[in-house]
Amino acid sequence: MKAVVVGATGNAGTSVVRHLAGEPQVTEVLGLARRIPDWHPPGVRWAEADVDPGGTSLEPLFDGADAVVHLAWRFQPARDPVETWRTNVLGTVRVCEAAAAAGVRALVYASSVGAYAPGPPDGRPVDESWPTHGWPGAAYTREKAYVERYLDGYQLAHPELRVVRMRPGFLFKETAASEQWRIFAGGLLPQRLIRPDLLPLVPDLPGLRFQALHTDDAAAAYAAAVLRPVRGPFNLAADPVVDARVLADLLEARTVPLPAAAARAALAAAWRLRLVPADPGLFDAVLRLPLLDTARAREELGWRPRHTATEALAAFLSGLRAGAGLPTPPLHAAAPTLHRRPYARPHATG
């Protein structure tokens, strides 16, 4: 089986190509990226490709592939939503159309919890039937929701092609920490300062609850979706649900109540001053995300996360302090830091 991974050098991509290359049924893994990395995991070969309109012709790269895993996505520049739309929406359409034209049998697309409409008032977890309208105030959630609508029509137009939509919570691993900090925090707060002895307090914001997952566990689910005859959407998340208490335990800190309006006002001011790259609309979206019911992934993919959400976050925090990364353009490491203090191993819960 030949598998092509589009967007193979980022957080999810580096885990997915390694996992697929380790599957006995997969005989060839081709990773596509805008820039060829210096990272060469066993069993993976690379090709340069740009999914943007006017970019690389994708159909020849998909020729002979049994499955295409589409992970390419741009969070930045958040101040230019037209630019992110070109890659995230129009680029996804190009990938999908090329896959159909090349006769690919399975397309696995990286959707997100961000595609979902705001969760129910009672906070119960939602399954894959929950509406995927997204939150209209953030480019990321608008784009994820739009692609979901496109795929509805695409599935009808190509019934011979097995389309799978993966909807994970937040993905973390140690070697992606520097990239994620650059994307969402920028230079406002040096990542080496995110350590227990310097952060005694964690703000407790009303409504701030989210689900996390180790990226390697998400990659296992992607590989299962490639290999098993499944279709449709799958929620992916690990226990426990992350809130201020969980974060405070990881940072050995205390929680302090903070109104969401005050936190948003501070973020909006930092955004206007160009101190942070993440816009306030994304903050609004996070406060409205539903919790995910992962029963379908467990039953149909035979999937179980090996790491708790707490362990995934601990890996991210350790990666921040170590300046961790990989020799790929998105995941290049931050400058090393001094006087590192290791995080306590989190308690497994859930």
Write up this protein:
The protein has 11 helices and 11 strands. It has helices spanning 11-21, 59-62, 81-101, 139-157, 177-184, 215-227, 244-251, 260-272, 280-287, 295-300, 309-322; strands at 2-6, 28-33, 44-48, 67-70, 106-110, 162-168, 170-172, 201-204, 212-214, 232-236, 254-257. It has a domain at 2-170 and 212-236: NAD(P)-binding Rossmann-like Domain (Rossmann fold, 3-Layer(aba) Sandwich), CATH 3.40.50.720. It has 350 residues and is α/β, with parallel strands linked by helices. The strands form 3 sheets. A 7-stranded parallel beta sheet has the order 3-2-1-4-5-6-10, with helices on both faces. A two-stranded parallel ribbon has the order 7-9. It has a two-stranded parallel ribbon with strand order 8-11. Strand 5, helix 4 and strand 6 form a beta-alpha-beta unit.
List the main descriptive attributes of the protein structure presented here.
two-stranded parallel ribbon, globular, 7-stranded parallel beta sheet, Rossmann fold, 350 residues, alpha/beta
